[in-house]
Amino acid sequence: MTTQRGSALILSLVILTAITLGALVAMERSSLQLKMVNNLQHSQDVENSVKGTLTYVYDALERDEKVQKQLLVAVNTAESTAVEGGKTLGESKFKLFELKQTGATTPILTAPKFTSPVLDAQPTTVVRSIPTPLGYDDFLKGKQGCGAGCDLSLYASASSANGRGGVLSSTQEIGLQRIIPST
User: Pfam families attached here (predicted)?
Assistant: First the structure.
């Protein structure tokens, strides 16, 4: 009879250690991938809230003439006030969802609500006027319905949102133009 020296035991322990290390590396990689996907989802939540706010603003302006007119008056008033105060065109800004009609207590456009555990607060939307490009008046004379001319209001609407802790943030802006036949 031959005596055993425990080589099978040592060999099985080495193989078991290698398998355990392989499993630990795989678990570490999967937890890292899970964190990456989670961060991507949080980023998309912030981005979607900003896009959703801009879409909401655009749709409201497109379908509601009353909101269009009130926004046009607010942009023109803010711009006049800024120019009188020594600022240049395009420097005046105001928060859209805080804009109220004269004498009213409610805003002309209510802010959409997003339920997301990722957002620090609801997205904010700022409106600013954009100076009219040179030569644009000649272009407007050719527009149908303008006759002798049209008034033009160019403005930009920018929405911003922040993720919890200020780590994620997103800002997007759209330009809008309103052409109004002169009366």
Answer: PilX_N
